[in-house]
Amino acid sequence: MNQLTELLRRTKAGDAEARNTLFSSAYADLHRMARARLRDGGRSTMMDTTSLVHESYLRFVSAGELRAEDRREFFAFAAQVMRSVILNSVRDRIAQKRGGESMAITLPTQIAADIPDAEDTILRIHDALGVLEDADPRLAQVAEMRYFGGYSEKEIAETLEVTERTVRRDWEKARLILGEALR
Question: What is the distance between the alpha carbons of residues 106 and 20, in angstroms, rounded to a whole number?
Answer without folding.
Answer: 50
